[in-house]
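Hypothesis: this fold can be encoded by more than one sequence.
Test: take the C-alpha coordinates below, design a sequence, compare later.
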Protein backbone atom coordinates (compact mmCIF):
# COMPACT_ATOMS: atom_id res chain seq x y z
CA UNK A 1 0.00 0.00 0.00
CA UNK A 2 1.23 3.50 -0.84
CA UNK A 3 2.34 5.30 2.37
CA UNK A 4 0.15 8.33 1.54
CA UNK A 5 -2.95 6.14 1.90
CA UNK A 6 -2.39 6.41 5.66
CA UNK A 7 -3.43 10.07 5.49
CA UNK A 8 -6.95 11.04 6.53
CA UNK A 9 -7.43 13.90 4.09
CA UNK A 10 -6.55 14.74 0.51
CA UNK A 11 -6.27 18.36 -0.62
CA UNK A 12 -6.50 18.05 -4.38
CA UNK A 13 -5.87 20.58 -7.15
CA UNK A 14 -8.36 20.58 -10.03
CA UNK A 15 -6.75 21.72 -13.30
CA UNK A 16 -4.11 19.27 -14.45
CA UNK A 17 -5.19 16.67 -11.87
CA UNK A 18 -8.93 16.11 -12.37
CA UNK A 19 -9.51 17.88 -15.68
CA UNK A 20 -8.08 20.01 -18.47
CA UNK A 21 -10.58 22.64 -19.50
CA UNK A 22 -13.79 20.75 -20.15
CA UNK A 23 -12.02 17.38 -20.60
CA UNK A 24 -11.83 15.07 -17.61
CA UNK A 25 -8.54 13.39 -16.62
CA UNK A 26 -9.83 9.84 -16.21
CA UNK A 27 -7.03 8.61 -13.96
CA UNK A 28 -7.51 11.58 -11.65
CA UNK A 29 -11.23 10.95 -11.32
CA UNK A 30 -10.67 7.22 -10.82
CA UNK A 31 -8.23 8.07 -8.03
CA UNK A 32 -10.76 10.29 -6.25
CA UNK A 33 -13.42 7.57 -6.43
CA UNK A 34 -11.04 5.03 -4.88
CA UNK A 35 -10.04 7.47 -2.11
CA UNK A 36 -13.70 7.90 -1.27
CA UNK A 37 -14.22 4.13 -1.16
CA UNK A 38 -11.50 4.10 1.51
CA UNK A 39 -13.43 6.74 3.45
CA UNK A 40 -10.86 9.50 2.92
CA UNK A 41 -11.85 13.14 3.29
CA UNK A 42 -11.35 15.06 0.07
CA UNK A 43 -11.31 18.78 -0.70
CA UNK A 44 -10.65 20.28 -4.13
CA UNK A 45 -8.59 23.45 -3.87
CA UNK A 46 -8.06 25.61 -6.92
CA UNK A 47 -6.78 29.10 -7.70
CA UNK A 48 -9.71 29.53 -10.09
CA UNK A 49 -11.02 33.07 -9.61
CA UNK A 50 -13.95 33.07 -12.05
CA UNK A 51 -16.04 30.12 -10.83
CA UNK A 52 -18.24 29.92 -7.76
CA UNK A 53 -18.76 26.56 -6.04
CA UNK A 54 -22.10 26.27 -7.81
CA UNK A 55 -20.51 26.78 -11.24
CA UNK A 56 -17.67 24.36 -10.40
CA UNK A 57 -20.13 21.67 -9.30
CA UNK A 58 -21.53 21.68 -12.82
CA UNK A 59 -18.04 21.13 -14.22
CA UNK A 60 -17.49 18.15 -11.91
CA UNK A 61 -20.84 16.68 -12.94
CA UNK A 62 -19.75 16.85 -16.58
CA UNK A 63 -16.60 14.98 -15.49
CA UNK A 64 -18.79 12.25 -13.99
CA UNK A 65 -17.87 13.05 -10.39
CA UNK A 66 -20.43 14.17 -7.83
CA UNK A 67 -19.10 16.63 -5.26
CA UNK A 68 -20.65 18.49 -2.36
CA UNK A 69 -20.30 22.24 -1.99
CA UNK A 70 -18.17 21.78 1.12
CA UNK A 71 -15.65 19.76 -0.90
CA UNK A 72 -14.88 22.76 -3.10
CA UNK A 73 -12.55 25.61 -2.21
CA UNK A 74 -11.76 27.89 -5.13
CA UNK A 75 -9.97 31.22 -4.72
CA UNK A 76 -13.40 32.88 -5.15
CA UNK A 77 -14.91 31.27 -2.04
CA UNK A 78 -11.64 31.40 -0.11
CA UNK A 79 -11.39 35.16 -0.67
CA UNK A 80 -14.99 35.75 0.42
CA UNK A 81 -14.36 33.69 3.59
CA UNK A 82 -11.12 35.51 4.33
CA UNK A 83 -12.78 38.93 4.15
CA UNK A 84 -15.68 37.75 6.34
CA UNK A 85 -13.18 36.88 9.09
CA UNK A 86 -11.83 40.45 8.99
CA UNK A 87 -15.13 42.21 8.51
CA UNK A 88 -18.76 41.15 8.34
CA UNK A 89 -20.69 42.44 5.31
CA UNK A 90 -17.77 44.39 3.94
CA UNK A 91 -18.18 46.85 1.08
CA UNK A 92 -16.25 45.40 -1.84
CA UNK A 93 -15.26 46.64 -5.26
CA UNK A 94 -14.11 43.80 -7.48
CA UNK A 95 -12.68 43.40 -10.98
CA UNK A 96 -14.00 39.85 -10.97
CA UNK A 97 -16.54 37.91 -12.97
CA UNK A 98 -20.03 36.82 -11.78
CA UNK A 99 -18.59 33.65 -10.13
CA UNK A 100 -16.50 35.76 -7.75
CA UNK A 101 -19.34 38.25 -7.18
CA UNK A 102 -21.65 35.31 -6.30
CA UNK A 103 -19.30 34.02 -3.58
CA UNK A 104 -18.68 37.51 -2.16
CA UNK A 105 -22.43 38.10 -1.89
CA UNK A 106 -23.12 34.65 -0.43
CA UNK A 107 -20.59 35.44 2.30
CA UNK A 108 -22.63 38.55 3.14
CA UNK A 109 -20.51 41.21 1.47
CA UNK A 110 -21.90 44.13 -0.54
CA UNK A 111 -20.65 44.84 -4.03
CA UNK A 112 -20.23 48.61 -4.35
CA UNK A 113 -18.61 51.18 -6.63
CA UNK A 114 -14.88 51.83 -6.26
CA UNK A 115 -15.35 55.12 -4.40
CA UNK A 116 -17.48 53.55 -1.64
CA UNK A 117 -15.45 50.38 -1.16
CA UNK A 118 -13.52 49.19 1.89
CA UNK A 119 -11.90 46.38 -0.07
CA UNK A 120 -10.49 46.08 -3.56
CA UNK A 121 -10.70 42.44 -4.67
CA UNK A 122 -8.79 41.63 -7.82
CA UNK A 123 -9.79 38.47 -9.64
CA UNK A 124 -9.55 37.46 -13.30
CA UNK A 125 -12.01 38.90 -15.74
CA UNK A 126 -12.11 37.73 -19.34
CA UNK A 127 -14.04 40.88 -20.24
CA UNK A 128 -11.64 43.36 -18.60
CA UNK A 129 -11.70 46.76 -20.28
CA UNK A 130 -10.48 50.34 -19.88
CA UNK A 131 -13.45 51.38 -17.75
CA UNK A 132 -13.01 48.54 -15.24
CA UNK A 133 -9.24 49.10 -15.09
CA UNK A 134 -9.86 52.81 -14.44
CA UNK A 135 -12.07 51.95 -11.46
CA UNK A 136 -9.58 49.39 -10.15
CA UNK A 137 -6.78 51.94 -10.51
CA UNK A 138 -8.72 54.53 -8.52
CA UNK A 139 -9.61 52.00 -5.82
CA UNK A 140 -5.96 50.99 -5.62
CA UNK A 141 -4.77 54.62 -5.38
CA UNK A 142 -7.28 55.37 -2.62
CA UNK A 143 -5.29 53.07 -0.31
CA UNK A 144 -8.13 50.73 0.70
CA UNK A 145 -7.28 47.14 1.62
CA UNK A 146 -6.28 45.32 -1.55
CA UNK A 147 -6.73 41.55 -1.96
CA UNK A 148 -5.89 39.35 -4.92
CA UNK A 149 -7.68 36.04 -5.34
CA UNK A 150 -4.51 34.37 -6.61
CA UNK A 151 -1.05 35.25 -7.91
CA UNK A 152 -1.21 33.32 -11.23
CA UNK A 153 0.62 35.13 -13.99
CA UNK A 154 -0.33 32.76 -16.79
CA UNK A 155 -2.95 30.03 -16.99
CA UNK A 156 -2.15 26.95 -19.10
CA UNK A 157 -5.34 26.62 -21.17
CA UNK A 158 -5.97 23.69 -23.49
CA UNK A 159 -4.94 25.60 -26.61
CA UNK A 160 -1.99 27.44 -25.00
CA UNK A 161 -1.19 29.98 -22.29
CA UNK A 162 -3.73 32.71 -21.42
CA UNK A 163 -3.39 35.65 -19.00
CA UNK A 164 -4.03 34.88 -15.33
CA UNK A 165 -5.06 37.25 -12.55
CA UNK A 166 -1.50 38.60 -12.86
CA UNK A 167 -2.72 40.54 -15.87
CA UNK A 168 -4.57 42.91 -13.52
CA UNK A 169 -2.19 42.72 -10.53
CA UNK A 170 0.70 43.49 -12.87
CA UNK A 171 -1.04 46.42 -14.52
CA UNK A 172 -1.97 47.94 -11.13
CA UNK A 173 1.59 47.49 -9.89
CA UNK A 174 3.04 49.15 -12.97
CA UNK A 175 0.62 52.05 -12.63
CA UNK A 176 0.72 52.58 -8.85
CA UNK A 177 3.71 50.69 -7.41
CA UNK A 178 1.23 48.88 -5.16
CA UNK A 179 1.11 45.10 -4.72
CA UNK A 180 -1.81 43.27 -3.06
CA UNK A 181 -1.89 43.43 0.76
CA UNK A 182 -3.07 39.81 0.76
CA UNK A 183 -2.90 37.07 -1.85
CA UNK A 184 -5.35 34.29 -1.04
CA UNK A 185 -4.64 31.57 -3.61
CA UNK A 186 -1.85 28.99 -3.72
CA UNK A 187 1.04 29.04 -2.86
CA UNK A 188 -0.35 31.27 -0.09
CA UNK A 189 -1.00 29.63 3.27
CA UNK A 190 -4.36 31.38 3.48
CA UNK A 191 -6.31 29.11 1.13
CA UNK A 192 -4.54 26.04 2.52
CA UNK A 193 -5.41 26.90 6.13
CA UNK A 194 -9.02 27.35 5.07
CA UNK A 195 -8.91 23.89 3.47
CA UNK A 196 -7.65 22.38 6.75
CA UNK A 197 -10.34 24.25 8.67
CA UNK A 198 -13.09 22.92 6.38
CA UNK A 199 -11.70 19.36 6.59
CA UNK A 200 -11.28 19.62 10.35
CA UNK A 201 -7.80 18.12 10.05
CA UNK A 202 -4.28 19.27 10.82
CA UNK A 203 -1.47 19.51 8.28
CA UNK A 204 0.16 16.23 9.29
CA UNK A 205 -3.09 14.37 8.54
CA UNK A 206 -3.33 15.52 4.93
CA UNK A 207 -1.45 15.31 1.66
CA UNK A 208 -1.50 18.15 -0.83
CA UNK A 209 -1.82 16.95 -4.43
CA UNK A 210 -1.19 18.99 -7.55
CA UNK A 211 0.52 19.30 -10.93
CA UNK A 212 2.60 22.45 -10.36
CA UNK A 213 5.66 22.74 -8.12
CA UNK A 214 5.49 26.54 -7.79
CA UNK A 215 1.78 26.48 -6.95
CA UNK A 216 0.65 23.23 -5.30
CA UNK A 217 3.86 21.81 -3.87
CA UNK A 218 4.86 25.22 -2.45
CA UNK A 219 1.39 25.59 -0.92
CA UNK A 220 1.66 22.18 0.73
CA UNK A 221 5.11 23.01 2.11
CA UNK A 222 3.80 26.36 3.37
CA UNK A 223 1.53 24.57 5.84
CA UNK A 224 4.02 21.77 6.53
CA UNK A 225 2.00 19.02 4.82
CA UNK A 226 3.37 16.18 2.73
CA UNK A 227 3.05 16.72 -1.00
CA UNK A 228 2.31 14.61 -4.05
CA UNK A 229 3.10 15.82 -7.56
CA UNK A 230 1.14 14.16 -10.37
CA UNK A 231 2.33 14.29 -13.96
CA UNK A 232 -1.06 14.74 -15.64
CA UNK A 233 -0.71 18.53 -16.00
CA UNK A 234 1.99 21.18 -16.26
CA UNK A 235 4.88 19.08 -14.90
CA UNK A 236 6.04 16.09 -16.99
CA UNK A 237 8.79 13.43 -16.83
CA UNK A 238 10.69 15.60 -19.31
CA UNK A 239 10.57 18.92 -17.42
CA UNK A 240 10.35 17.80 -13.77
CA UNK A 241 14.05 18.27 -12.98
CA UNK A 242 14.20 21.73 -14.49
CA UNK A 243 10.99 22.66 -12.62
CA UNK A 244 12.47 21.47 -9.30
CA UNK A 245 15.65 23.48 -9.78
CA UNK A 246 13.77 26.51 -11.12
CA UNK A 247 11.37 26.72 -8.17
CA UNK A 248 13.70 25.34 -5.49
CA UNK A 249 11.13 22.95 -4.05
CA UNK A 250 10.90 19.16 -4.27
CA UNK A 251 7.69 17.15 -3.89
CA UNK A 252 7.74 14.34 -1.31
CA UNK A 253 6.19 11.95 -3.83
CA UNK A 254 5.78 11.90 -7.62
CA UNK A 255 3.26 9.71 -9.49
CA UNK A 256 2.06 9.61 -13.10
CA UNK A 257 -1.52 10.19 -11.92
CA UNK A 258 -3.67 10.19 -8.80
CA UNK A 259 -4.92 6.63 -9.44
CA UNK A 260 -1.31 5.38 -9.36
CA UNK A 261 -1.63 5.65 -5.57
CA UNK A 262 -3.42 2.32 -5.86
CA UNK A 263 -0.92 0.46 -8.08
MG1 LIG B 1 -3.15 22.57 -11.49
Amino acid sequence: MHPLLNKKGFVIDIDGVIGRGESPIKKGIEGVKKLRELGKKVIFVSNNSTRSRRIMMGRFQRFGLDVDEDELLMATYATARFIAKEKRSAKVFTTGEPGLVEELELAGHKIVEYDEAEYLVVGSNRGINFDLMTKALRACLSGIRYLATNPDRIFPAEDGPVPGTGMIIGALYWMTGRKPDVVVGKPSKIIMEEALEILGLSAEDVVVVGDQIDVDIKAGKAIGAETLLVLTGVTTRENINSMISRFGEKPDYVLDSLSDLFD
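The first helix runs from residue 26 to 37. The chain is about 35% helix and 20% strand.
Hypothesis status: open.
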